[in-house]
Amino acid sequence: MVESKTFTVEYELGGVVFYQQVLAKDIEEAKIRVRQLQSTANIRAVTLINDEDIV
Fold first, then answer.
1. Which residue in 11, 13, 1 sits closest to 43, CA to CA?
2. Within its chain, how far is the Cα of 26 from the centroid?
3. Which SS3 state, helix, strand or coil, does residue 37 take?
4. 8-40 pLDDT, tens digit each
5. In what order do the strands lie in the sheet with 5-13?
6. 11 touches 41 (CB < 8 A)
7. How far apart are CA 10 and CA 17, in angstroms?
């Protein structure tokens, strides 16, 4: 089972930069999740927030 990780997606929409945290299994899925909500957004960066295993 692939566990979700927290990513921050930086995107531009109408000349304004937004940041959104999403749960996804990888960078591509994080981009897809943002594009589902903001289809015309220009994704500028995707950052993995926490990749540590929690015991």
1. 11
2. 9
3. helix
4. 999 999 999 999 999 999 999 999 999 999 999
5. 16-24, 5-13, 42-50
6. yes
7. 7
